[in-house]
Amino acid sequence: MQACSRTNGIVAAGLCECDAHPPDQLLDVLQYSPALVADAAPRRRGDLYPETGRFHVASVVHHALSMSIRPHNTASQFPRASARTGLAPLPASFTEPYVPIQALERLGVPLVETDYLTVGGGFGSFAWADHLRIFGARPEQIVALSPAPVPYTRFKRLCQHSQMPPHERLRSNSDACPDNIWGWPGYAVRECWAALRRGDLRNATRVLWQVFGEPTFAETYTPRASAVYAAIDREAARIGWSQMWRCGRAQAIRKTADGRYVVACSRPDQPAGPIDQLIVAQHLHVAVGYPSVRVLPDVRAYQARGGDRRRVVNAYDAHDHIYAQLLQHGGVVVVRGRGIVTSRIIQRLDEVRRQNSAVRILHLLQTPIESGHRYGRVQRRTAHHWEFQVFNWPKACWGGELRARLAQASEHERDQLLAVWGGTTTAERADWVELIDRGTREGWYQIRFGEIQRLELQSDRTLLIGMRDWGAPPGLTSFCADAIIDCTGLESSVDRQSLLREMLMHYQLQRNSRGGVPIDDSFAVVGMANGSGRMYTSGVMTLGGAFAPVDSFLGLQYAALCSVEALVAQQAPALRPLTGLRSLRQWLAWARGAPP
Ligand SMILES: Cc1cc2nc3c(=O)[nH]c(=O)nc-3n(C[C@H](O)[C@H](O)[C@H](O)COP(=O)(O)OP(=O)(O)OC[C@H]3O[C@@H](n4cnc5c(N)ncnc54)[C@H](O)[C@@H]3O)c2cc1C
């Protein structure tokens, strides 16, 4: 355990919330801590991380052959103290807009050069590297910088915490396949085929009925999380992801004086630690996902007063102890939010309630919903103040007319369209709808509208909640509960993402209408072109641009496709157009599991 001097948060438990120690990011490290913390340096080819038993780490041989590692001087030239509070001290040359390569060489840390660098190593990075490989780049031309060797590490952890274990179904379509850039065969075909091979005709027919009947006659097909993980493992092995992966955390991005980019990195367990490697790349891609879980002001205040964190939790943090406690003793749980995670948490609570009927759910909402959002002649359905939509955006946002509509819209219009199409919705799953109907009828599920004003832990370890109630009659009320599960989501503001915020400030870049990173049609960051070098980004940090579903499997693949096609047009190293026959040959290689 280690304490943060800024907030007294406990860093090793992932509990500190200062900018330097966003809890979510720390957990990436902790998951792999025995290997990574002890030794972030490349190992011999063939070494395995015992935690996954799956990925071979990039080897010394690989790095020596494929990327030139410059020898480094012994004298470090880093300033002793940093003006960037809570972040790693940066070299003096990083105050310049263009850093000379010679200045980097004098810094006294290993310097790696590569053609393509992707920072993040999650789904966004994986999609980019997958496209680069299929378009012609070799593994040794690509570096994927991330604290975790497995691309779905953070995704899986967030899913598991929010009660979506591998056997549960996700919220994306059959053809949203992060492992397959062609989208065929999609997950439905694969599931159907696997069922047929097992002789499970019932499941095979059900899947077929879903894909042909959705959304009018059947619920939309969505894949199991485990199917996505297994498919990513297969594709990662095929494209040589383990050779590209390099352990580290990016601290700063700068343009170099010779038309490239340099990324200063620290060890992943030291978010504010010293820079221990520099990576210089001709083309850069950044997909760092959500900065952290969201902590609402009332919870923050409660935690600052030393409140019990085990009773007031975010749905994306580990909180299985709450279900265990309820199973044993029953109790009242306050649930906040009304997205898909809320649906799943309530379903999980119902599973517990079936074993202990003394479990009650109080669903605390800020506002009632009488009718769903309307766009043209289409209106979303609602029930019990929940609003339904199959995916988090209307399907036409991915490739249909809504994608074109948003691309043509002005900045102001975009903001309005995003508000109407997006927002907080859940899927209209029959079992979830039945659950809420039944809970309301039987009285163990109740909705209240209001705002928490006071949150205190009483001597009997229950929570005293003072609330401004919007209901009838409105006024101040207070009640006791045994736990609060906050399902209001993850932080998505660039201001909470230190790497990108620092870069935007350093280069004085404009934000998009929603405060996100400004990108053009190829997902290149506006204002970050450097000679022939290009910087791309994808994921939630780009929300507010010309494409709505940026934070989705298919959205990340679309971003990767746009940027790699732009690189092809620019004749970037080793990339060739993926036209007709070449695409077919590549697909056949994918089908056989052969390297691109
Ligand atoms: C619970 C959940 C369920 C979802 N379900 C679906 C679904 O069913 N279908 C769908 O299409 N989409 C879904 N999404 C949306 C989307 O697909 C995911 O958010 C996806 O993980 C986004 O990929 P990403 O690469 O942007 O971020 P991530 O996958 O989170 O990867 C970001 C990576 O960046 C690393 N990182 C952060 N900072 C740094 C740094 N400074 N230096 C180096 N590395 C850094 C992190 O450690 C992490 O490994 C879901 C999202 C969540 C949260």
Molecular structure report:
With 596 residues, this protein is α/β, with parallel strands linked by helices. It folds into 3 domains: 24-173 and 222-292 and 494-596, FAD/NAD(P)-binding domain (3-Layer(bba) Sandwich), CATH 3.50.50.60; 175-221, no CATH class; 295-370 and 425-488, FAD/NAD(P)-binding domain (3-Layer(bba) Sandwich), CATH 3.50.50.60. The chain has 20 helices and 20 strands. The strands form 4 sheets. Strands 1, 2, 3, 4, 5, 6, 7, 8 and 20 form a 9-stranded mixed beta sheet that branches. A 7-stranded mixed beta sheet has the order 9-19-10-11-16-17-18. Strands 12-13 form a two-stranded antiparallel sheet. Strand 17 (463-469) and strand 18 (475-481) form a beta hairpin. Helix 5 (123-134) packs across helix 19, helix 7 (187-198) runs antiparallel to helix 8 (201-213) and helix 12 (320-329) runs parallel beside helix 13 (340-353). The chain is globular and about 70 Å long. Residues 1-69 and 71-76 have low confidence and may be disordered. The structure holds flavin-adenine dinucleotide (FAD). Flavin-adenine dinucleotide is lined by residues 25, 28, 119-125, 145-148, 153-155, 158-159, 162, 170-172, 176, 249-250, 287-289, 499, 539, 551-553, 556.
Which key features would you list for this structure?
single chain, 596 residues, FAD/NAD(P)-binding domain, 3 domains, 7-stranded mixed β-sheet, 20 helices, 20 strands, 18% strand, binds flavin-adenine dinucleotide
Helix fraction, binned, reads 25-40%
> What count of domains describes the coordinates?
3
- The poorly predicted ranges are 1-69, 71-76
What fold name stands as the CATH topology of the largest domain?
FAD/NAD(P)-binding domain
Q: Going by CATH, what is the homologous superfamily of the largest domain?
A: FAD/NAD(P)-binding domain
What multimeric state do the chains show?
A: single chain
Gross morphology is globular
In percent, how much strand structure appears in the residues? Answer: 15-25%
As a whole number of angstroms, the C-alpha radius of gyration is 25 Å
Termini gap: 44 Å
- Average pLDDT metric: 87
Give the CATH class of the largest domain: Alpha Beta
In this structure, how is the largest beta sheet organized? Answer: 9 strands, mixed
